[in-house]
Amino acid sequence: MTRADDLRTAAPVYQDELLNEMLEHRIAAADDESLHVAVRWGAEDRLLGSALLVLRTHCDDLEREHDHAHRRAEHEPYFDDPECTRTTGLCVLAAMRLQRLLAQELDWARKDVAEAEQLQRKLRLVHGVKRVERYRQHPRSTPELGSVAELLRHRAESVNRVGALLAEDRERLHALAFEEQQAQVFLASPASTSLRKIHEMSHRQFEQLVSALAARDGLMVKQRHGGPHDGGVDVIATTPGGHRLVFQCKHTKRATPVGVPAVRELNGIARPVHHADIAILITNSTFSKPAAKLARQQDIILLSWWVLVRWATWGESLLDILELEETGGLA
C-alpha cells in the first residue's frame, strides 16, 4: 500500500454523512500528485506560520526594549537641582541614543512582519488545480518560503545588532554608576558649591570662587580678583603647560543675559594688554545671542551658569571642560 493509499483510508469522519461521502469521494478521486501537493502545501503553510510567529515575537521584544529606553529618556534632568550630576544627563543621552537605534530596528522588523503576512496570504490563495500547476512550476522550491527565509536572516542579523547595543548600553550604565558614586561623594563634600550659593554671592566672592576653582584644577593663579589696578580683568591663571587664561567675571543677582558690551570690553584688553592665550568671560547667568556670535568671531570663550554647575558643583576640571590639551592648545 502506498502513502497515497494510506491518505485515502485515513479520511476524517464527520457526524454529517453527506460530508463524509463528499470528502471520501474527493480523496478517492485524487491522484498521487494532488495528494502530494496538498501535503506539501499544508506543511509549507505551517512553516510560514511558524516563521511569522518568530518575526512577530522579535517585533514584540523590540517594542519592549524601545519602550524601556523611551521611559529612561523621559527623565530629563534639572541641572539646577542640587542632587543632579553630570552622569544624570549622560544616562539620559545614552537612553536617547539607544531609543533612536531601537526605533530603526523596530521599523525594519515591522516591515518584515508585514511582508511575511503578505507572503502567507499569497500562499493560501493557491487552491485546487492552481496549486498543482504551481508546484509543477516550482518542483523543488516555493517562492514564498524562499522569501520568508530571507526575512528570518534579517531577524537573526537584527538580534545580533540589538544584543550588541544592549550589551554596550549595560556597560555604559555600569561605568556611569561608578562615576555617579564619585559625583555624589563630591556633592556631599565642602568642595562642591551649588548654583544657589553662587547666586547668593557678591561679585568679589564670585571672583574668589573662580580663582579657587582654577587653583583646585592645578592652575597657577597670578591674580585672584579684580580691583582698581586690575587692568580690566578679574582673574589671571596659567596652566601647567604654560597657557595664560584671563577671566572676566560677570556676577548678577538677576537672570539677565550678559550682552555684547562685556564681550567687547574683554576682547579689547585680554590679548593686547594681558597677553592672554585664552580669554574667558564667565557668568552665573547666560549670554545674549549677539554676545555669543561676537564671542565666536573674536575667539572669546563664554562660560554660563551651566558650565559653573559642571565646574563648581560637580567638580569637573576646567581643562576637561575647555578640552584643553597641554601639548597642543585647544582641542
Task: Please provide a written account of the structure.
With 331 residues, the protein is α/β, with parallel strands linked by helices. Helix content is 63%, strand content 9%. The chain has helices at 3-9, 17-29, 32-74, 86-124, 128-137, 143-187, 195-200, 203-216, 260-269, 289-298, 305-313, 318-321, and strands at residues 220-223, 235-238, 244-250, 278-283, 300-303, 324-325, 329-330. The chain has a 5-stranded mixed sheet, sandwiched between helices. A two-stranded antiparallel sheet has the order 6-7. α3 (32-74) packs across α5 and α9 packs parallel to α10 (289-298). The chain is rod-shaped, with a radius of gyration of 36 Å. The N and C termini lie far apart (84 Å). The model is unreliable at 327-331 (pLDDT under 50).
In short:
The chain is built from twelve helices and seven strands. The protein has helices spanning 3-9, 17-29, 32-74, 86-124, 128-137, 143-187, 195-200, 203-216, 260-269, 289-298, 305-313, 318-321; strands at residues 220-223, 235-238, 244-250, 278-283, 300-303, 324-325, 329-330.
